[in-house]
Every structure is written in C-alpha cells, then in structure tokens.
Write a structure and sequence with these properties.
It contains 13 helices and 15 strands. It is of the alpha/beta class and 398 residues long. A hairpin with a 7-residue loop joins strand 9 and strand 10. Helix 5 packs parallel to helix 6. It binds pyridoxal-5'-phosphate (PLP).
C-alpha cells in the first residue's frame, strides 16, 4: 500500500546544505580525505564550563519536563543580556526557549501566518526560510539583492515588493550565506518602510556575536521607538557558543505573540531539553571570554579566506562583516569544462569540485543566487589552507 503524504509536506525539499554535507560524508566513508566547507557549524568544542553545567544539571536531577517556554533563569539571563548589550527592555514572559533558532523561526511563522500571507525574503537567503514559510501555506516573496549593494535589501526594493497580502519582512544580519551586515543607518531606512507599510519583521540575529573588527551589530528592535512591538527577534546558542547539537534557541516577541507560541510549543514539543537549557544558562549567563576567543580564531580564518579568494584569478567575494561564510562569485569559471566535464551552473561546479578535488561547498542556487558558491570557514586553518589550494588547482587547471 502506498501512503499518501500531505501536499504541504510532499512539496518540501531536504535542506541543500545538509544534502551537500551528506555527499561529503559518503565520500569520507568510502575512505577519501574530504575538505568539508559545507556546514554552518563551529568546529570548536562547546566550552568546558558549559558542558560541566549540563553534567551538574543531570546530577541535580534536572531531568524532567520544564515549563513549556523554558526555565525561568534562562529566560531571565536572555532578557538581562539584551538589556546589557542592546539597552532593550523585555520581560521574561516575552521569551520562548525552543529547540534551536530554526524551531523558534518555525514557531514564529506558525503563530503569525495564515495561508496566502506573503513574507518578503531577501535573496541570497538561508536555505530553510522558504520551506518554513511554505509549511504554513504562506508565500515567500523573494527579492533579489546584488553584490553591488553588498547583498543588502534597499528600502525602495522593499517598498516595491509590498502588496496588500504582505505580513512579514524577514531579515538576517549578519547574513548566512553572504556574511554581509547592515549598518544601523541601513537598517533604520528599512525600519521606516516597515513602519510606513505596517509590516512585521522577523529578525534572525543568530550570528550577532560573530562580528568582525570594523563592523558593529545593531539589533533591529532598537532602531526606532515602538519597533519592538512589530519585531520578532530570533537568536540562540548554536553559533556563538559552539552548541549546535544542544538545540537551544529562542524568540523574543510582543507578549501576545509569545503567549500564542507558548500554547503552540506546549502542544507540539512540551518543552526543550531540560539539560540543554541548563547548559544554555551557563552559556548566556556565564563568562563570555569563550565567545571572544572563538571570534579571534574566526577573524584569522576570515582574513585568510578573503586573501586567498582575492589571489585566485576569476574568483571574488564581498567583504564579510560577520558570520563564518564566504559567498564566492564563481561566474567567471562557469561555462567551461573541468577534467573533460562541462560545468554551466553552481550546482554542477560544486559537484565537480567535490568529486575531482574532494572539497565540499554549497551551490549558490540553494540560496537563490546562481553564479556563487558558499564556503564555510568554521573549520581549521589547516583544512582551509588545503581546501583553497585544491580550489585554486580546480579553477586554474585546463
Ligand atoms: C541564519 C540562520 N538562522 C538560524 C539557524 C538555525 O540555528 P539553530 O542551530 O539554533 O537551529 C541557522 C543555522 O545554520 C542559520 O544559519
């Protein structure tokens, strides 16, 4: 008997970054050395004091369901951090702790969107946004940005994309996949259109702590008085504290949205993992030097990667203000053959790079930007050096 899957779920495609990482893993399992620049996951171990807090939580018996929206001290620590760092005043009741920022995004979209509602998503975009919107039978409206504007949505583009169905603007700064960061002035100009057109904003600020020298992060909710009332902030511990596997993220929203998400989460997942929440409490509420130490290492890698890309003929890349990705323009190296194989687009380019040189990157097409490939530099300097030697050999060999 063949079971029929719902239309909405049947239309979903698996995450392309995970698919590429899966191909790299298969190759590794066949015994080949693979240089994997495909995944957005810090290669550092979770700092020791955070792991110890999880062990202690287990010893203390924190092994039961928690409140659906998360443990009170973690929500308080999140609120305290936003007050200290951004001067934003939230109540703990506005925070819902979820199973990662991805789940927090799902909760926010589920709580806000009705079928047919439009969500404006600037491209290049993170691979999961469209799928998370479509799960609600809402409509992603993709607006293309260009390298010339550092992949930043322009206020006039936003204004032109708004229709009477538009409900939400999604913003991700620093950006996955481009690493570009909006300045406070640029965000302020978008905020003015948001207010004028009466939109809501989902601000994915998961890379907030990974910002390079010369750049400054501004939380969207701080930009104009009253903006917090229409802003859904998304954040979490995965990237800043190297805690991807612990699955803790959160949304901070207006109170009525937080209450709706609390109901949703109580029915869907009961609560996030108790032990992980105690680990996240140690991360957010504890010493922050570990974040600075990781940033020092990421800065070295980012400078190395920018310099290597600039040194390879025909490759280029906009300067990264934050996150740990290089969005490399490969257009000049398309429309030719590699080892006898004709390569016309970013997908073929990444597949050939993997099979001929064992370097895994993700095709720009997955992020809505053909002619590019994304390299994550969340891997050791040694791997980066070897990977870029191979990328150089790939594009320069005839
Ligand atoms: C832009 C962006 N948002 C959200 C997430 C999800 O993070 P989490 O691991 O907390 O679910 C990621 C992870 O890759 C991301 O790049």
């Amino acid at each position: 008997m063949s079971v029929s899957i719902s239309d909405v779920v049947r239309a979903l495609k698996p995450s392309e970054t995970l698919a590429m990482a899966g191909k790299a893993r298969e190759l590794k399992e066949s015994g080949k050395k693979v240089y994997d620049l495909s995944l957005g996951e810090p290669d550092f171990d979770t700092p020791a004091h955070i792991r110890e807090a999880a062990v202690q939580a287990m010893k203390d018996g924190h092994t039961r369901y928690t409140a659906a929206t998360g443990i009170a001290p973690l929500k308080q620590a999140v609120v305290d951090q936003y007050r200290k760092v951004h001067g934003l005043e939230y109540q703990p009741a506005q925070v819902v702790v979820s199973n990662g920022a991805k789940h927090a995004l799902h909760n926010v979209f589920r709580a806000l969107l009705n079928p047919g509602d439009e969500v404006i998503i600037p491209a290049p975009y993170w691979v999961s946004y469209n799928a998370l919107v479509e799960l609600n039978e809402a409509v992603p409206v993709v607006v293309n940005t260009t390298e010339a504007t550092d992949f930043k949505l322009q206020p006039e583009q936003l204004r032109a994309a708004v229709t009477d169905k538009t409900k939400v603007l999604l913003l991700c700064s620093p950006s996955n996949p481009t690493g570009s960061m909006y300045s406070p002035e640029e965000l302020g100009a978008l905020a003015d259109v948001v207010i004028e057109k009466n939109l809501l904003v989902v601000a994915d600020e998961i890379y907030e702590r990974l910002v390079y020298p010369g750049h400054r992060f501004t939380s969207f909710a701080t930009l104009r008085p009253g903006l917090a009332e229409r802003t859904m902030l998304i954040n979490g511990v995965s990237k800043a504290y190297a805690m991807t596997g612990w699955r803790i993220g959160w949304s901070m929203t207006p109170l009525d949205v937080a209450k709706a998400i609390a109901n949703l989460q109580s029915q869907e997942t009961s609560c996030p993992s108790s032990v992980s929440q105690y680990a996240a409490l140690a991360a957010v509420g504890g010493p922050q030097e570990c974040v600075d130490e990781m940033l020092v290492e990421f800065t070295k890698r980012r400078n190395f990667v920018m310099q290597r890309i600039a040194s390879i003929a025909g490759l280029s890349c906009a300067e990264m203000g934050g996150a740990f990705y290089a969005f490399i323009n490969i257009a000049k190296h398309l429309g030719r053959t590699y080892g006898g194989v004709r390569v016309d687009d970013s997908t073929q380019w990444c597949l050939e790079l993997l099979s001929q040189k064992q370097v895994a990157m993700v095709m720009g097409a997955a992020f809505g930007a053909e002619g590019y490939a994304r390299a994550s530099f969340a891997t050791s300097m040694e791997n980066l050096e070897a990977a870029f030697d191979r990328i150089e050999a790939f594009v320069t060999e005839k």
